[in-house]
Automatic annotation (TrEMBL):
This is mRNA cap guanine-N(7) methyltransferase. Responsible for methylating the 5'-cap structure of mRNAs. It comes from Mycena chlorophos. One of its GO terms (cellular component) is nucleus. Its EC number is 2.1.1.56. The lineage of its organism: Eukaryota, Fungi, Dikarya, Basidiomycota, Agaricomycotina. Residues 14-73, 82-101, 115-147 are annotated as: Disordered. It comes from the Eukaryota. One of its GO terms (molecular function) is RNA binding. Coiled coil: none annotated.
Length: 457
């Protein structure tokens, strides 16, 4: 018969313990069998290690069948399992002994209804979400971005804002220095004259002149360049809100000789007037700068037009629009150079890599590729900017090209310049002997970019 602890415990005490020896069971007409006897498990016997067999009184209580061998009532006390009882004798008592059983007063009861100790306050405090920081007064409420835009925003928001010392340890420090030198040449050649001709500033102790819009300012990497250009007012806008906060912090940590206003804004989908108040935009800009970011606007013609509207509408006549973008001709030439049966449509080296998704489908807008640059860009989607199409579209907004050059040619043109040659040494593009800090892989990566300048007429 299967062992059933509930049935066996109620029916007979001999079924309630492990097997010891066989005893005859009460016979019935239907079950003529014998079952193994069980070791008694009297509670006192188990607790006191008493080898004397004891039987449970459960059957007695349930069936009102007194047993002569029932000893549970006379079993030794359970307390016998502890050799010596430990007396309750607390030390360092906080409350007096006579206060334990004293009834609480009504005032105490009212107090403890809403009382929280330090531990409770700490635990409940952790459960509560900290209040969201209030948005900056110059910024619209931040929003989440989806699709390719979300990938780009998340990437740049997560990029750490390294200091000057840590920046020098970058494995591509030579390339970064060279790119900064190219931007300095572009600003000096085209932005400085426009700033000097500006009607903004020129008064007061700072003595700056001109107004600059840095669209896609990122973490404020060009603030020093504009400080050396002695601008009067600087406006920085970027789609990545975290980058804007870092740019604002960078500005306030240094003594910059100009005023600055920052705003988180998608300049390819929203007007500048959404982020900057009318009083700030009343005087037009003298310079609009877009460094290594304009290609994101060419995801669609709508975004490209919104970008150009933001550039042109707030730029004065005679003002300049400067920037840097990937060289579409070179990127497409490298794509065409891949074997016809290649499944992996990528090229590059250890420093950079470009991967296309399609060889034949080449739309004017939305021609996407994926870009990786060591210690800078972690495989984000970018878009081809066809130069002729860009020039034609910009002309509709009164913007006309005055300069276009590949980075390699900018180097060849200005390396012996009286101003820009020594600047290369100062910015550590080359050392005092004229040797470059870039290796061949970095030099190849630099050549995928061009610099441009447009004038509003």
């Amino acid at each position: 018969m299967p062992f059933d602890p509930v049935r066996d415990a109620i029916a007979s005490p001999i079924f309630s313990s492990p097997l010891t020896h066989s005893l005859p069971l009460p016979q019935s007409p239907r079950t003529p069998m014998t079952a193994p006897a069980r070791r008694p498990t009297g509670l006192a016997a188990l607790l006191n290690d008493d080898p004397t067999p004891r039987t449970s009184t459960i059957a007695h209580l349930l069936h009102d069948d007194p047993r002569p061998d029932d000893r549970l009532a006379t079993a030794p006390s359970i307390r016998k399992i502890t050799p010596t009882a430990t007396k309750y004798n607390p030390r360092n008592r906080i409350s007096p002994p006579d206060s334990i059983l004293r009834p609480m007063s009504q005032a105490e009861m009212n107090m403890y209804k809403s009382y929280q100790g330090k531990g409770t306050a700490r635990l409940t405090g952790k459960r509560k979400r900290s209040p969201e920081p209030e948005p900056h007064r110059d910024e619209p409420p931040s929003k989440k971005h989806a699709g390719d835009v979300g990938v780009v925003v998340d990437h740049y928001n997560m990029r750490p804002d390294v200091g000057v010392v840590q920046r020098e340890t970058s494995p591509i420090i030579g390339l970064k220095s060279f790119n900064n030198w190219v931007k300095s040449v572009l600003i000096s050649r085209f932005a400085h004259p426009a700033l000097q001709a500006s009607k903004v500033g020129g008064r007061g102790p700072r003595g700056g002149r001109g107004k600059v819009l840095d669209m896609g300012c990122g973490k404020g990497g060009d603030l020093t360049k504009w400080g050396k250009a002695r601008v009067a007012e600087y406006f920085g806008a970027d789609i990545a809100a975290v980058s804007i906060e870092q740019a604002r912090s960078r500005f306030h940590e240094r003594r910059n000789p100009f005023e600055a206003t920052f705003a988180a804004l998608d300049c390819y989908s929203e007007p500048l007037s959404k982020a900057f108040p009318p009083a700030k935009l009343a005087a037009p800009f003298d310079v609009v700068s877009m460094q290594f970011c304009m290609h994101y606007a060419f995801e669609s013609i709508q975004k490209a037009r919104c970008m150009l509207e933001n550039v042109s509408r707030w730029l004065r006549k005679g003002g300049v629009f400067v920037g840097t973008i990937p060289n579409a001709e070179q990127l497409l030439a490298n794509l065409d150079a891949l074997p016809g049966d290649a499944e992996d449509l990528s090229f590059g080296n250890d420093v950079y890599k470009i991967r296309f998704e399609d060889r034949t489908n080449r739309p004017v807008f939305g021609h996407k590729y994926w870009f990786y640059l060591q210690d800078a860009v972690e495989n984000v989607p970018e878009y081809i900017v066809r130069w002729d199409n860009f020039v034609q579209l910009a002309a509709e907004y009164g913007l006309h090209p005055v300069y276009k050059e590949e980075f390699h040619d900018i180097f060849s043109e200005h390396q012996d310049h009286a101003e820009f040659g020594p600047l290369m040494v100062k910015m550590k593009v080359v050392d005092s002997n004229g040797e470059s800090a870039m290796d061949e892989a970095q030099w190849e990566a630099a050549n995928i970019y061009i610099a441009f300048a447009f004038e509003k007429r």
